[in-house]
Amino acid sequence: MSLASNSKVPCTIVTGFLGAGKTTLIRNLLATAGGRRLALIVNEFGDVGVDGDILRSCGIDSCPEDAIVELANGCICCTVADDFVPALEMLLARPNAPEHIVIETSGLALPKPLVKAFNWPAIRSRVTVDGVIAVVDGAAVAAGRFADDPEELKRQAEADGALDHDNPLEEVYEDQLLCADLVVLNKADLLGESELAGVERDIERTVPRAVKVVRTSEGRIDAAVLLGLGAAAEDDLAARPSHHDAEEEHDHDDFDTFVVDLPAILEADALISKLRKAAEDHDILRIKGFVAIEGKPMRLLVQGVGARFSQHFDRAWAVGEARSSRLVVIGEKGLDQDGIRKALNG
Ligand SMILES: Nc1nc2c(ncn2[C@@H]2O[C@H](COP(=O)(O)OP(=O)(O)OP(=O)(O)O)[C@@H](O)[C@H]2O)c(=O)[nH]1
């Protein structure tokens, strides 16, 4: 490695589909980073910053709150010039410059445009992509979330003879895997050995080059495995094919997001039942946010991935903080916003 590349600040890009466990993995990484001075860029597709809030509340000395930049409301792959590069420059200019920068992309972001940005003159002499880590929701892969729907393909073939209308989820999932230096097969706790082996085969079929796959539960993997891969991915773009290589620009037209503000909640379990039913009825991909329960001093963090929900009180409402309930909903284009709002407000 040359002297110049030695002096570059290594950056790790954490990618992975909606709800795969990126924030959970990064929380764990912060806790095991062993005093290394870190900074974070956290990107959300929906316009309520939930992940940044979760990570800020970790209270880890080596990653103070002001070293965490949140870029909500869209995918950073589309706002590289306006948001991502300025955020990186801002972190590099901090008086206590970070030793390593971790970037959590939104679950719908394509990692390749971000890796490409590391070749921009404004930053190329100062940063390098230490590695792209793709977090995979093992349970979602095993359930066929990212596979083409054979029925739909058949229907389209009969309608217009076209066979190229892939599942849009598959396209995002594959783009993320194809860019990876390390694949973290997460949610292993939800799968048996044969399902895990099946998901591993699926990953190997998708990624033509040899990429290490490690199994995890709750993103528990030592920081030493994640940081220091030394990939310099920005010098190696040709090995990372994307479904969007031929396009100047891409969009995320296949997906929709909106925010639901809820009235006073009396009881958490009843809310979760309602959310689960709405997620099933409307095929919602992701729901997350904070909820105020009447009479409770703590706020409830609600997380839904497909129809799987979890919730816990994550911290007390601060003095003067508005106690409101807001959830981000993400799904494929055509989500029935009115129907979902009605179901949740009813
Ligand atoms: N059972 C199980 N649940 C997990 C695991 N890892 C994460 N989760 C849960 O999955 C949900 C989503 O986890 P996150 O870490 O927020 O996922 P994410 O990839 O950051 O989500 P987005 O940023 O919205 O794309 C949360 O409820 C987590 O507690 C795991 O290994 N096993």
Automatic annotation (TrEMBL):
Keyword vocabulary terms for this entry: Chaperone, Hydrolase, Nucleotide-binding
Family matches, as InterPro entries: CobW, CobW-likC_sf, CobW-like_C, CobW/HypB/UreG_nucleotide-bd, P-loop_NTPase, Zinc-reg_GTPase_activator
Residue ranges of domain CobW C-terminal in the record: 256-345
Keyword flag Repressor: no
Keyword check for Nucleotide-binding: yes
SUPFAM superfamilies, A to Z: Hypothetical protein YjiA, C-terminal domain (SSF90002), P-loop containing nucleoside triphosphate hydrolases (SSF52540)
Residues annotated as domain CobW/HypB/UreG nucleotide-binding: 10-210
Pfam families hit by this protein: cobW, CobW_C
Catalytic activity annotation: GTP + H2O = GDP + phosphate + H(+)
Family: Belongs to the SIMIBI class G3E GTPase family. ZNG1 subfamily.
UniProt xrefs under NCBIfam families: CobW
Purpose of the protein: Zinc chaperone that directly transfers zinc cofactor to target proteins, thereby activating them. Zinc is transferred from the CXCC motif in the GTPase domain to the zinc binding site in target proteins in a process requiring GTP hydrolysis.
Name listed for the protein in its UniProt record: Cobalamin biosynthesis protein CobW
UniProt source species: Labrys monachus
